[in-house]
Design brief:
The protein has four domains: 219 residues, no CATH class; 51 residues, Molybdopterin biosynthesis moea protein, domain 2 (Alpha-Beta Complex), CATH 3.90.105; 116 residues, no CATH class; 212 residues, Hypothetical protein af1432. With 709 residues, the protein is an all-alpha fold. It is elongated and about 170 Å long. The protein has a two-stranded antiparallel ribbon. The chain has a two-stranded antiparallel sheet with strand order 2-5.
């Protein structure tokens, strides 16, 4: 037996180790990813270009046609011409170079002939010619220079103005490199047609040929930028879900193959990018779940069985969504998805906050599982939120049916909203018929959520040892076999348990504990007294107390044994673990004072070892509800012993019992505060006051006869 216990302890230690949690996390992630990925892509076809299609093929989901989009963007980029930037400085440089000699001639000062001798005039002329040739080698020789210097300034000015005008008119719109020759030829033609001196015209033309330049400069950077903008302006080419890709009997073209490849419907293609993106999204949401549990729900994160349970609920919801959403067999509707199933189960088993977090994030998973459908996201979010709140307070299993109806009503509202957004008020017989069908499917999705939750809840309770409020309420039914046995075999204990349940429930409500658990736990806390009911005073109706004939040590053993017997009966009747814990802890290590003092008086001295023999085996209460039931149990028995109960006496007795338990350390291991104990005491007194209130002394028949006479 020791070997088996040691083996179980070792197994439990391994199960809760960090390595086991990592492996569990990996396993749950793989299971989640496979659940999302399986069936997400449609049937594939083996087709080649030029082949006749044997089937009419429709797009199974909306997807971007990457190949067609790339071709369209490349075509848009090719249509963008090379970009030439306008250089405004070119015109000035060309004019300066071409008209430089003319400007020089215009700037020469005119010297009065009478002030210079012929020799001086000759010298001055030679100097001007030399300077002219030095500054403008294109003039050629002295003869050309002399001819140019002899031209009247009016003619030079005319040539200068005309040349500047022609250059400006040509370059101001901008000239690209391939248009420079034509532009130069046009200027030359205009000059030939003008009434200019031959020498001036030839000089200008020479300078034009040497210095005329285009003023639009090619910019590779701006060209690339504009082509990039052209590509970016082309929107993604989307193949919409349900769109016809190819008709039966139609010749398969490259465009058809491109679309089928984008949809992942070609046997020769595998959507690596799609599955990689799906992996990233699932990993992100899975990481968010893990962080939430680790940061805000450490008690669940540290329990592998609870992690498995949450993962199982999520995965079952995904498979139900695939089954009824038409993702596996092609038959179904997004509105039929029982998305609220997860939030219903999580809210009942754990709480509404956990259900809201997992329900809303699971809606994202369901949305991209269904091909990033907006209506699936909206309906899953609505269903999850309404489902979580609709079972925040559950009193019976029929409340799950009510929750299903609430989810169905929310689905109807969501579907109407989506329909109005999509179609407005444009009513046609076809649209009305389609809307009515969608509404019916939405109602079905809500009801399916509750049906699955009702069906799975007992299985989860049994497999994972979960005690839900619904299970507790079932156990509170007086027709439960253990309670019927208590009523028939130990009626005093039964009535005592009912009273303890009333006290514990009232106290739990004041301190934020679970009132249903307190009531049901109180009903079963003394189940072990069924073994020897007549040894407990509440079941002794003839005044015959068997403890008067046995030693106090044996009496103590019988009283202590009722806790062990209660745990054994709880196992026999398959009661939830939390009820077994309450049975085991409801006395803690309390001293059985009556028989202890009898034994002490018989022995005549105080002995610590003797005291240990007259204490319950424990453990002490480990949680609020078991501590409340301990106090209610002790207080009920003590107040019942008061001969003439009054509010003052009841308050004193309740305070005394609570202080004794506190001083004895019985409440050290449960998280009841001093403030909680004060509120619990007031709740006890309020219940007792309602029971032991003063009654009116009704007159007897004799008194009535006297009054009538």
């Amino acid at each position: 037996m020791k070997t088996r216990g040691a083996y179980l302890d070792k197994l439990n230690s391994l199960w809760h180790s960090a390595e086991a949690k990592i492996l569990l996390g990996v396993f749950l992630f793989i299971a989640l990813f496979v659940s999302v990925a399986v069936g997400i892509l449609p049937a594939q076809y083996e087709l080649e270009e030029g082949q006749i299609s044997p089937d009419t093929i429709y797009a199974a989901r909306s997807v971007i046609d990457q190949e067609a989009t790339s071709l369209a963007r490349a075509a848009a980029a090719e249509q963008v011409e090379d970009v030439y930037l306008f250089d405004s400085a070119v015109e000035g440089r060309v004019i300066d170079k071409v008209t430089g000699p003319l400007a020089y001639l215009m700037a020469l000062p005119g010297a009065p002939a009478e002030e210079l001798t012929p020799e001086q005039a000759e010298v001055a002329l030679q100097g001007t010619v030399a300077e002219f040739l030095t500054l403008f080698p294109e003039v050629g020789n002295e003869d050309n220079a002399l001819l140019l210097l002899s031209i009247p300034q009016e003619s030079v000015e005319q040539a200068l103005v005309l040349t500047k005008s022609l250059i400006h008119a040509t370059l101001s719109p901008g000239i690209k490199p391939d248009g420079a020759a034509a532009a130069l030829q046009k200027i030359k033609t205009d000059l030939y047609q003008a009434q200019l001196s031959t020498q001036l015209r030839d000089l200008v033309i020479v300078n034009l040929e040497n210095n005329f330049r285009h003023n639009r400069i090619y910019s590779p950077e701006e060209t690339a930028a504009q082509r990039r903008r052209a590509r970016d302006q082309v929107e993604n080419i989307i193949i919409l879900k349900g769109a016809k890709v190819i008709d039966r009997g139609e010749t398969v073209t490259r465009a058809h193959l491109s679309q089928l490849r984008a949809l992942g419907m070609l046997e020769t293609s595998f959507a690596y990018g799609y599955y990689l993106g799906l992996l990233v999204l699932v990993a992100s949401i899975f990481g968010a779940w893990g962080y939430y549990l680790h940061r805000y729900r450490p008690e669940l994160f540290s329990s592998p069985s609870r992690l498995v349970l949450i993962g199982l609920i999520v995965i079952l919801t995904i498979w139900a969504a695939k089954l009824f959403g038409g993702l596996l067999f092609g038959a179904g509707s997004p509105y039929l998805i029982p998305a609220a199933m997860a939030s219903l189960l999580l809210a009942i088993i754990f709480d509404v906050h956990l259900a809201l977090f997992f329900g809303t994030t699971l809606a994202l998973v369901l949305a991209f599982t269904a091909g990033s459908e907006l209506n699936v996201l909206v309906m899953a979010l609505i269903g999850s939120v309404v489902g979580a709140y609709s079972v925040s307070k559950v009193n019976q299993r029929s409340d799950l049916t009510r929750a299903g109806l609430l989810v169905a009503a929310a689905n109807v509202a969501g579907i109407l909203g989506l329909t109005l957004i999509g179609n407005g008020l444009a009513l046609t017989p076809t649209s009305v018929q389609g809307t009515l069908l969608d509404l019916a499917l939405g109602v079905g999705g809500g009801l399916l959520s509750s049906v699955f939750a009702v069906g799975l809840l007992p299985v989860i309770e049994s497999a994972f040892g979960i005690t839900t409020p619904i299970r507790l309420l079932e156990l509170a039914n007086p027709n439960q076999k253990p309670l019927k046995r208590l009523l028939l075999e130990a009626p005093g204990t039964y009535n005592h348990s009912i009273m303890v349940g009333n006290l514990a429930e009232a106290a739990a409500e004041t301190v934020g504990a679970d009132p249903v658990l307190c009531r049901v736990g109180a009903y079963y806390h003394d189940l072990g007294k069924l073994s020897r009911p007549y040894f407990f005073i509440e079941n002794q109706f003839q005044g015959n107390n068997p403890h008067d004939r046995i030693p106090p040590s044996l009496s103590s053993m019988i009283l202590v044994a009722h806790v062990r017997n209660g745990v054994e009966l709880a196992r026999e009747y398959k009661l939830p673990p939390v009820i077994k814990d309450i049975i085991e802890q409801h006395h803690g290590t309390t001293l059985i004072s009556f028989f202890y003092h009898r034994a002490q008086s018989e022995r005549g001295s105080r002995d610590q070892l003797l005291e240990d023999k007259f204490r319950y085996e424990g453990p002490k209460p480990q949680f609020k509800e078991s501590g409340i039931i301990m106090l209610a149990d002790s207080v009920e028995a003590a107040v019942r012993s008061i001969s003439q109960p009054s509010q003052f006496r009841i308050e004193g007795m309740v305070e005394k019992i609570v202080q004794e338990k506190l001083a004895d350390g019985q409440l050290d291991q449960c998280d009841l505060t001093l403030k909680d104990l004060s509120q619990i005491s007031r709740a006890f007194v309020q219940v007792f006051t309602g029971i032991y209130h003063k009654r009116i002394a009704y007159p007897s028949e004799k008194d009535l006869a006297k009054i009538s006479s």
